[in-house]
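pipeline/complex-builder :: batch 7 item 3
reading input block
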Amino acid sequence: MIRAFLKRVFLVDLFEGLRVTFRNQKPKYIYTEQYPAQRPKVAERYRGAPRLNLNPETGEPLCIGCNLCALACPESLIVMTSIRDEKTKRKTMNTFLFDTSRCMFCGLCEEACPSDALELTQDFELATYTREGQIWDRKMMEEGPKPTRYKC
Amino acid sequence: MAEEKPLPPKPAPPKPPATMAVIPWQAELAARLKDRFGDRISELSSYLGQNFAIAQPEAIVEILEWLKSEGDFDYLVDITAVDWPKKPDRFELVYILYSFSRNERVRVKASIPEGFRPQSAAGVHLTANWLEREVFDMFGIEFSGHPDLRRILMPEDWQGYPLRKDYPILQQDEHWVHENVGIESGQ
Amino acid sequence: MPDATFLDSTELVLNMGPQHPSTHGVLRVILKLDGEKVLGTDCVIGYLHRGVEKIAENRTYVQFNPYVDRMDYVAAVSNSLGYCLAVEKLINVEAPPRAQTVRVILTELNRIASHLLWLGTHALDIGALTPVFYCFREREEILKIFENYCGARLTTHAFRIGGLQYELYEGFEQEVKAFCDMFLPKVAEYEELLTNNRIWVKRLQNIGILTAEECKQYGVTGPVLRAAGVRWDLRKAQPYCGYEKYDFLIPTRQNGDTYDRYLVRMEEMRQSVRIIRQAVEGIPDGPAIAKVPKVLKPPMGEAYVSIEAPKGELGYYIVSDGSTQPYRVRVRPPSFVNLQALDRMVRGALIADVVAVIGTLDIVLGEVDR
């Protein structure tokens, strides 16, 4: 009874809490990221901006125009056309449209791709000034987004 | 479908090619249910180890009451409906029950035609209140005797019942969207 | 004798939300008040309604998987697990042991993350500013593990029907173990901050009492039910994913008030760490995904599968008509059903208690509205 009274008078519970707070005040516990200056490193498996990979040796697109990514997409946001190459008699991708504004980065298109052509990369800066800018064509898909790099 | 036996006066529908491979539900509880309700339960089956009873819609609340007092199924997990527009009894109401003491689940199902007003189960299980409101909201099934039957997820003056099969995914209440959101279309 | 009409008060209707910070999203509660006393409430929900069940009918089984993450977005892994288990039940496939163990680890990590978010925001509602920073700091570690594992932090899409899509990355076990070692003292730290704090205790004790009988009547599950004294957890009652192999306790309390629910959730985090430690010790080798046909066509039938999500019983009732798309997917969301008990819990309480009770119910509006 007296104990409880004294605890109350001397604000014991308050100081117990404050002790925890001060324990966490060490300057080495700093978690702030200086984002535009220092870009965070995202995980290797991060699912970000889509990219159409090119064959590193020939520079030819790896895409074989099979349309599997478009079929796998839950949002049906990939629209592609393919033409048959007269020389090699192979199907090749002609146009490719990817609507990133509707994409939820689930990774199903990447999993469906049989030739590792479509890949969700580690780029995460996808903001554009217009809605139309969110729809990426083949050129954009091959080059990838070019976000502004800030010098600080 | 096997579990979709129509009520006796109706002609039997043509059997669809594929049916649910059910096995009879043989347990003490099933026998007691059959004893107690007789004709009003048309089927007691089990699929993938999950037991269900198909009953006449009029008897549902009575069955829930009986299961609660006699079978100790004191927790109404969920009420939902499935729309089968091609069947004579369009909607299938599904009540999922659980018993804490038996650690057992049972489903009670009933087929109802459009416009039929099943009795509300809110008097037996309080949780039925919102669950039935959702069924009303999504399927337009009105429960008679429900304390507060209003739309719950959709706006109150929305036209149409979104989870019906004749409501395509792109459909919306254009008038409502125009009035309240001020845009031509939500897509 | 004072004038009777002077004391006669009129009912006041107060609108709380949908942008109120303590409604945890877009919940709108219409309060009927007599002075500061709550006479009744009416929840207006649906602001976040996206028609997940309708979307499911227009997607294939595989395609619908990422959508379930977006219902309870703070516990996306649990949602995904429930859906995968339900479809696996329909096609009669069981995930290989390796996948099951990893699933257990990830869902338990997610349970901790969900409880941490709850603790931080709940404490913030009550007025304790500090815990939210600490909780988010620890939650960040869990999200980093998720990001390393599957590439996303919140809406993970970590599981696939039949098992796992991603193999474990190098150092997964060490990271999880390091998290467990780091995390247990942190729980004690939160308790140091809150459990005996006078304001915390006064604001929570005997507030929003829900007895075991009422819990069953309202279908309330999860920590709310356990705080009322019912020792019921689907992980023990109907084990899935090999939960029967792990040694853990179901924490319960007797009073069923807000303070007890807080204690139950704190203990649950400790038990989750216990499960993770056991699971991570023995991740079996073998395939990560069972053989599942590329085009998924479950036979005609239906199944109801439920799991213990951080908020309560999360059930999926799937009806298949034998085609590639589910005929009907019904989600039994724990938040939706639990929220219904709000009216019962706050009737007769004060306005400030409404904030505490909404916090203690641990609702996520994405799941309430679907």
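note: The mean pLDDT of chain B is 80.
queue -> next item
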